[in-house]
Amino acid sequence: MKFHDTATKTVRHPIVGDIVVTGEALDLPADPGLRIVTYTVEPASPSQQALAFLDSWSSQAEPAAPNE
Description:
By secondary structure, this protein is an alpha+beta fold. The chain has one helix spanning 46-60; strands at 4-13, 17-27, 35-40. The chain is 22% helix and 40% strand. The protein has a 3-stranded antiparallel β-sheet. The longest helix has 15 residues, at 46-60. It is flat and about 40 Å long. The termini are far apart. The mean pLDDT is 87.
């Protein structure tokens, strides 16, 4: 019985361009119809560098003021 599928896809981001990700979908036999999907990029790839660049933006963002 096969419980996972793997696929590669390209996600186009308006600032950093194409990001190539590998997705793995895992079906959970105990919960029919429930599927978990994870996406990863190759280490030291242009896609990993693009994600690191985007991450650097989020870590520099000002925290939002709480709604009072």
